[in-house]
Amino acid sequence: xxxxxxxxxxxxxxxxxxxxxxxxxxxxxxxxxxxxxxxxxxxxxxxxxxxxxxxxxxxxxxxxxxxxxxxxxxxxxxxxxxxxxxxxxxxxxxxxxxxxxxxxxxxxxxxxxxxxxxxxxxxxxxxxxxxxxxxxxxxxxxxxxxxxxxxxxxxxxxxxxxxxxxxxxxxxxxxxxxxxxxxxxxxxxxxxxxxxxxxxxxxxxxxxxxxxxxxxxxxxxxxxxxxxxxxxxxxxxxxxxxxxxxxxxxxxxxxxxxxxxxxxxxxxxxxxxxxxxxxxxxxxxxxxxxxxxxxxxxxxxxxxxxxxxxxxxxxxxxxxxxxxxxxxxxxxxxxxxxxxxxxxxxxxxxxxxxxxxxxxxxxxxxxxxxxxxxxxxxxxxxxxxxxxxxxxxxxxxxxxxxxxxxxxxxxx
Length: 412
Known about the structure:
Elements: E1 2-6, E2 15-19, E3 33-34, H1 38-46, E4 51-55, E5 70-72, H2 75-86, H3 97-123, H4 130-146, H5 148-154, H6 163-181, H7 186-198, H8 208-211, H9 219-225, H10 228-236, H11 244-252, H12 273-288, H13 299-307, H14 316-326, E6 334-337, E7 341-347, E8 357-363, E9 368-376, E10 386-389, H15 392-395, H16 400-405
Antiparallel strand pairs: 1-4, 1-5, 2-3, 2-4, 6-7, 6-10, 7-8, 8-9
Helix pairs in contact: 3-4, 3-5, 3-6, 4-5, 4-6, 4-7, 5-6, 6-7, 6-12, 6-14, 7-11, 10-11, 11-12, 12-13
């Protein structure tokens, strides 16, 4: 029997079968689990959730004499009700990056929980919850459409420890942004975002000592890594809700245009547009993120390096669109202005890629920090311009990420 009850009636041993609240408002990625930890009940009570569904055939019932708010035996009806309640209200009204950062940060927190849950399901041989993954991609897509700088930049902030999970979120956001730049339609954009979210699911089966090895991999270890696209494909191929192109991204995001990639050694146009997009977004986030064995590159340096890889690895035309979607000097890049001041890029000007918004905070002439000031290089009256990229590893500013985002990687 399925019963809807007040959260005040929750008790350990009850089987939760759905939260009567929007997906972003309840504190769990899962919808179906037994309450076994008192802290889980505390998390529900501390949230805005007022009612939940429980399944009395899988867990404890309410005490005798306590009337539920509603009850039914139709699990399908409840599933539909829950999905309707959880489906986020669509809002793609443009906002400033500053406004969107707060919303995007909530999505990042929820996304990390979601991807960790999907990896756990994959490791245990359980089906991956792609229905709720669709809700997550919708949230990511709406955020990118409101303001692309916030989501694609915040998702890049990650620690080496949570790289595997947040990398999936970052690639999903980058894929959505690239799809919009390529003027793909809404369904294709959703496919791109879903493919980005699921592209590395096969790494759930990769031993952690190989995945997080702080040194160069042996040939045998690299062969283990190279198995993850096929592993991910095998996990998802029987899911009828997934578009074939989502599976194509999962299987072929490591192909190279010169045919030297894996697993199939596809070449040029034999690689789908979606897989070529996946390759670019995957590489960008990988090289700009801190890993167990290396520090991430500055975003603008990453763009410069990737431009040199379009002769055999990355698709040149798709890469040009990618540059337009994230900027020549992506948000978070450290740059020097013609005045000698150093600053960090905080936002893009899509019609003037060489003239982003920069927050200056250091004077090379006086060799000291100065009060931070925002400068929009695209304004007609602005006489400043970027003269150089700067290496964050040389300057070692300890607060570089908070300067442009207000967040540290540990936030996720």
